[in-house]
Each structure stands twice: as C-alpha cells, then as structure tokens.
C-alpha cells in the first residue's frame, strides 16, 4: 500500500516515473476492460475527493505491467485479481487521496523552483554530456504516454506527500539495545558435525505380502491416482486460419508504402567527435593547433591542457545531437574538417565528422515482403474480430457452440479429455490448446455444462471452451500400478529404517557419546559444516536447510535429525559463533536502517488508518465488480 513511500532511497522523480517506466503501457491482457464502452464514474469516495473507474483501471494496468516484469508474462489479469491486486491497487489510490487531503489541510506546498531542480537533477532526463536535456525529457515523457503538465503535477504531489511523511517518520529512533539484539540474532553462526543416512544404504526388504501391497495402495491415493480431468468442447479462431486467403493487391501494397514513407525514411547519420573547452581562449588555441595537426587528441594535448577534453559522441542523426546549437554546425561539416568553435552553456565545442551515412528511402522492392506480411496480419486480425462478433451473435441467437463455430469458421478441437497440466488421458501434452495462460485455469473453474466467455489470446486469436463432463480424481486399480506400489512400499520401508537409525544416533549422543564415535561404529561418514547463520541457503553452507533450522533450536553438544530428499541426516551442534555488532559498523548500520524502514512503514500504515477514520472512505463494491467481474465484491 505504501510501497513508494517506504523506498526512502529513491529519488522523487523515480517515485513518479517508477509507475510509468515499465513500457508504453501496452494493453495486453486487459483488453476485456479496455474494450468496454463505459467505465464506472466513481468507485470510491475519499473525503471530498473521488476515485474514478478510469483511475482504478489505469492503475491496475500499470501494476500488472510492473508485476509482469518480475513474475513473467504468463501472469494474466484473472490470476492477478485472485491474488488481490484489485484491492491492493484500490487501497493504494485511497491512501494517495488521504495523504493529498491531509497535505492540503496542513498547507504543505512545494515551490516551482524545487520541482524544477528535481527534474534537472534526474539522470533519466540528462543527455550524453551529463546535463539536463530538454529533448531527452520530452522523449521520456512521450515514450511513457505522459504530458509534461501531468508529470510535473504528479511529481509535485509526490514531493508534497514525501515532505509530509518524512516529517512523520523523522523522529523515529531505534534504541541501540534493540539494534544490537537484532544484529546478534541475524548474524549468530553455528558449526555442526553431520552424518547422512541415505535410503540406498539400507538393505532392501523382502517382497511385501498381498495384504501389505493392498494396504499401501489404499493408504497413498495421492501417489497412485489419475488426476481430475475434464471432457471439453473447444472452439478456436486464429489469424493464421484466415491469413492464407488474404492476398493484398498491388495498389494496396503501393498505398501502404506511400503511407509509410515517413517511417521508412532512414535519416542521415554522422559519426561525430568533439573537443569541449572550458573557455574561448582555449578553444581558439585548439583550433589553431588543428590547422597544423588534424588529430583532435594531439591538438588538445598541445594546446588544451587540462581545460579541454575529447569525446566521441557516436553515430548520430539530427534528432540525436545532444545540444540544439550543435546540430547545424555538425551537419554542415565536410568529412574530417574541424568546425569553428561553438559556444553553449556547457562550454566551447569544436566538432569533427569522421563518417557520414547518407539518409535514404528504401525502395518498394526492398520492403515489399514486409509490407505484405504486415497487411496480411492486419487484415487477418480484422477478419478474425469480425468472425468472432458473428460467432457471438450466433450464440446469442440460440445456436449451440458446435453449430455457431462451424457456421463462422471456428475450428473444433479434435481432443476431448484434458487434465490441469494440459495433458491427454495418456499423459501426453496437448499441442492444440490455446496459447493463453488463462486457458487451463478457466477450464478447471467451470462446472459441468458451463461455457467460458469468448476470450482473446495475446496473438489476436479467440477461443471458447465448454466443460461437458467432470471426471473426478480417482485411485487407479492396483493391477495398473502394482509395480509402482511395490517400489513405493520398499522405499517407505527403507526410509523408516533410516529414521530409526537416525533416532538411535540421537539417543546415543544424548547418553554422552560424540557423533564421531557413533559414526565410526556404524561406518558412516562424518562431515563438519562451515559456520552458518539462520538465513543462509543450503548450497552456500553445505547443510540441509531443515537441519540448519533445527540446529538453531538445540544447545552445543546436542543432536537432532531431519528427513532429507535421500533419507535422513543427523547433526550435532559443536560450536556457536557469537556476533559482535561493535566489530561490524557497516552491518550494524544496515540493521538500523532496516529497522528504521520497518518502523517507518508501520507508522505510515497507522497514520493512513487514522486518516481513513478522520476523512471517511466509501467504496462502491458494485462499481468495482462491474469493472472487474471476476474479482470478489
């Protein structure tokens, strides 16, 4: 809820841009919401402010984009809703409005000069020379679908809220005793001796009796059952299904070429280097030196001293040149000829062009195939959308899914039975199911006889599925899985013997023997661990995570055992390495900062709760449900 406010290290500019610098806000995965003709006017009232349906829809889309950068593109909107993203997004908007109201009540304001300074200092808006670049600023906003007015307003509001929340949390002081106690807890390390008792080291038991086989089979249905399956009817429609019949005419191709001239035009680009001098006198001295020696490096070394530097600006088009005053001089130069000194706020520039790549317009023949592919793709998507609309009309007129699909060009899948992993009855993956991460989850949410809505895939296709029959999970007959049951029974018997052996070792240590002594009598290999703490991962310490946790619950000399993937492992704690906060100032500082952040976050949450009670919050759950039909009211 208060994630941005908790990140005190982030700049104010990135607290605003963090929501936007995720991409161009492509609307993939939320098309069902965007296509709605109307959005609820108001979904919540916060004091005298409101949150509109568009506000919630837009912020939800941004949160989806942000999550997909970390969780992967397979995250779909329905899954995100089930995970509570709608409520979390709405809560963040409510908190935003509450802080805005309270800031206004306390007359917290940020001057234009402070906002401008934050913008100028932001690296995202700086050009190749490390200074604020107006063109870079405008380009970043355009790429993120933001106007300058909107960005500056959002930045100002964020700075106001940050000033308010910083004032609230500035007085938090974490006692040194608390810091030291947390440091010791987190950094205490332990050392242990270990022995492993793998299942494979236990003798294979004799063959089980028929009664034992039957009992093990019945007692472990999760091991020997067929998964729940569904018999389905699936209708699909993909752009590829209609693309073969689309043949753009020569006139259509030519018109598309003419319409794309501006985007196809490759601008002239120049490889530019520059001398940047601090003052005019130095620039003139370098220019004079260049008359005798055309090497920029030599000229600067001879006449520039420490008041001039050489920089390679790269291969640039006109729009890429970092300073407007350098554009015309750079693109008027002949190859290898130094320019006159040009003055800018950064100093005096002398330019040299090392290479010129002329601008050109690719011929129709060069881009013909790509234009045809684009036209076929666009027309096939349009055709698919038209067929999908007709298909829905047919269903609305009372036709069955099968009849409506056949009448409108949808394909009916040739498979019937499917499990939750997309496999057929034999356990083989089904390659013909829709490439949509929502498909399998939607199939297994439907009851027998229910149909899904017509859904669009990321590739522009559509599908509808109906569940004809639910086949419950069922224990396979013993005759089908007899060999697996016997193998499982034998492994279970060996695992039980390994556990008993581990218990014997722990008991022997409790009676005063060392793990080394017991291991030698049982012909087990003793291994000593490296020092480990509570939070180290197994590959780093060589100790199973479960055993490491258990060893933090015993005293030196005591032993414990846990089950491992291969059997059992016994560990005896041999040494505790205390952590000294005084010996690690940077680590102690990190603990203090972490506690400061945690306490600050908790204080802000309490503050937000108090603001809710003070100003009032009303949420229209019906409006939220209208906007997100699958979310809980």
Describe it for me?
Helix content is 49%, strand content 16%. It has four domains: 3-172 and 600-627, Porin chaperone SurA, peptide-binding domain (Triger factor/SurA peptide-binding fold), CATH 1.10.4030; 189-210 and 479-577, Chitinase A, domain 3; 229-246 and 367-472, Chitinase A, domain 3, CATH 3.10.50; 266-357, Chitinase A, domain 3, CATH 3.10.50. Helix 6 (85-105) packs across helix 26 (585-615), helix 10 (176-187) packs across helix 26 (585-615) and helix 19 (364-396) runs antiparallel to helix 20 (401-407). The strands form five sheets. Strands 5, 10, 11, 12 and 13 form a five-stranded antiparallel sheet that branches. It has a four-stranded antiparallel sheet with strand order 15-3-17-16. The chain has a four-stranded antiparallel sheet with strand order 7-6-9-8. It has 633 residues and is α+β, with helices and mostly antiparallel strands.
